[in-house]
Amino acid sequence: MSEVESIKEFKQSYDSFRKEIAKVIIGQDEVIKNVLISIFSQGHCLLVGVPGLAKTLLVQTIAESLGLDYNRIQFTPDLMPSDIVGSEILDKDRQFIFKKGPLFSNIVLADEINRTPPKTQAALLEAMQERSVTTAGKRYDLSHPFFVLATQNPIEQEGTYPLPEAQLDRFMFNVVLDYPTYEEELEVVKNTTSDKKVQLNKVLDGEQIMKYQQLIRKIPVADNVMEYVVKLVAKTRPNTKYATERVNQFISWGAGPRASQFLVIGAKCHAAINGKFSPDIEDVKAVAEPILRHRMVKNYKAEAEGLSIEQLIQELL
Fold first, then answer.
1. How high is the pLDDT of residue 135?
2. For residue 69, which of 92, 105, 201, 287 is within the disulfide window of CB 3.0 to 4.6 Å?
3. Residue 191's pLDDT is what?
4. From CA 281, how far away is CA 216, in angstroms rounded?
5. Cross-strand pairs, 108
């Protein structure tokens, strides 16, 4: 199959996947699009939103539509690394065997990730970056495909452990969920307060997802788009050659090279889901906000003036 036909097939699969998810999740189109882009780009996604916006339901629906293994880990202050990675136990022959933890799954939902101490958060770092875990000196490969979707509550910060920059950087997207519109909420309430059952069909399997992940990597990118990406990320770094006056004034830290990598891969996937064979600058702009949002740190001046990171990103675009 030629690359052109493969991209057409990918677009059809993506469209039928979206339709399947829409049977359960009403609205949140931008959120669903970004989560799916991160799956096909081999990235991870951080969802930030107040309780009750169907973050967990979204992950369950995606896992069901894909026919993949799915585990939900509720992060709590007393959760230990061995609770998520697994631990060695004695079997009946008094031999140590490794009992795998919930991290050994295709889709892992890390619910309220900022409620657990840094020691346990760090156990996710290797898994997210290396797609493997090390315990008792042995390395264990995780399932393929492997995708972490973490949720965070922006209110109630008492008793939480904010994610360190190194861990935030591992997430391809930081997606902010907003309240549904009046019409969407009306439909949600109608659907969830009756005995109506929704039957989801499996749209894709693990093999197909991995095939599409490889396809996205092969998509060519024009030099001008590549240069635009690197220059855009360079502009976020204060007191450097490309930094704008506003960035120097309001930003403490800018995005690192991982942002450039994710922008290129995200733009490739965004182009493919729209039936294009190569990304343009518009595709980069479409994925820029959720990729840069958690990689730029505002200073006290920006806080005092009530400036949001999103406003500063839009100015750079």
1. 77
2. 105
3. 75
4. 17
5. 71, 148
SS3 content of the chain, % helix, strand, coil (to 5): 50, 15, 35
pLDDT digits (tens, 9 = 90+) for 262-277: 999 999 999 999 888 8
Q: How far is CA 254 from CA 20, 77, 244, 267, 279, in A?
A: 38, 30, 12, 20, 24
What is the arithmetic mean of pLDDT over 49-78?
Answer: 82
Q: What is the model's pTM? A: 0.87
- Sign of the alpha-carbon torsion through 34, 36, 40, 43: positive
Question: Tens digit of pLDDT for each residue in 149-203?
Answer: 888 877 666 667 778 777 788 899 998 888 878 888 888 787 778 777 777 778 8
Nearest to 313 by CA among 297, 125, 304: 297
CA–CA gap between residue 69 and residue 103 (Å, rounded): 11
3-state secondary structure of 245: helix
| CA 165 to each of CA 125, 168, 170, 263, 295: distance values in angstroms, whole numbers, following the listed order | 12, 5, 9, 18, 8
Other Cβ atoms closer than 10 A to 83? 18
